[in-house]
Structure formats: C-alpha cells, structure tokens
C-alpha cells in the first residue's frame, strides 16, 4: 500500500485571473469558458501518484474580490504551497501579486513554497505583462510559470 502525503495548496490573486479554471482543469480535467466568480473560497482534492507515494492535494481556490481579502489567511494558514495567479492580459493583476508575495512572506507559514503563475498564455497576442516582469517577480517567489487552463500546461509543475 502506498503512503499518502497530504499537501495543502491555496491559490491567490485578483478576480478573473483564472484561479478556478486552473483548479478545475487540474482536478476534473475540464475547461469551462463560463466559470462564475468564487464566493469566499472553494475546496477540491486530487490524488496523484508520485514515486512510491500518493500526493493528495487539498486545494483552496480563494475569491479574488477585494472584499474577501481578509479571509485569505484562513486558507493559506498551514499551506505547503501558494500559487499566486495573475492574468498576463491585465497589468493590474500583476501589480496585486506583489502584495500577495509580501503578505505571505510576512504572515504565511514559514516554509511555504510560493509559485507565481502568469495565466492565460493562450492569449499572448494581447499580453500586457511581459515575461520579464514575471521574471522580476520570480526573484521574490522562486517558481514561475505561464499556464493556460485551456491549453493545459501542467499544473503539476507548480506544486511538485
């Protein structure tokens, strides 16, 4: 029998950046163009074989609206990883990610792994945030990727 390792992961970022789409694609292998905004947070799990053990991801998909920001510590407390998502077509969402990195460094779990995901790379023809901007942010959070839930560049790169 394989050992099961539970990993709590939370997704943070502005509303509309694609956090729910990333989670839905990872957990259900499904992409929906019409996902409704998350209210508060949603929770999903997915178990993935990795070597001689199973990794059970406990995924908290947080709401991006400012009015829910104060609830975020409840979801990232005890997390092994946080994925901070921005939309490469929305410059404002990139600026917000810097606030999340700062908050996690000051108030998050001591050993939390932070990943920055520049989402919606399938819309690169209308990109407003250059990859160089992402690389500068990477200096604060050591993992950077540009997934697209529609094209599905592996979520596992973010969390394993």
TrEMBL record:
InterPro entries: P-loop_NTPase, Small_GTP-bd, Small_GTPase. It holds the Pfam family Ras. One of its GO terms (molecular function) is GTPase activity. CDD domains: Rab5_related (cd01860). It comes from the Eukaryota. SUPFAM superfamilies: P-loop containing nucleoside triphosphate hydrolases. The keyword GTP-binding applies. Keywords: GTP-binding, Nucleotide-binding. Belongs to the small GTPase superfamily. Rab family. PANTHER family: PTHR47978. This is Ras-related protein Rab-31 isoform X2.
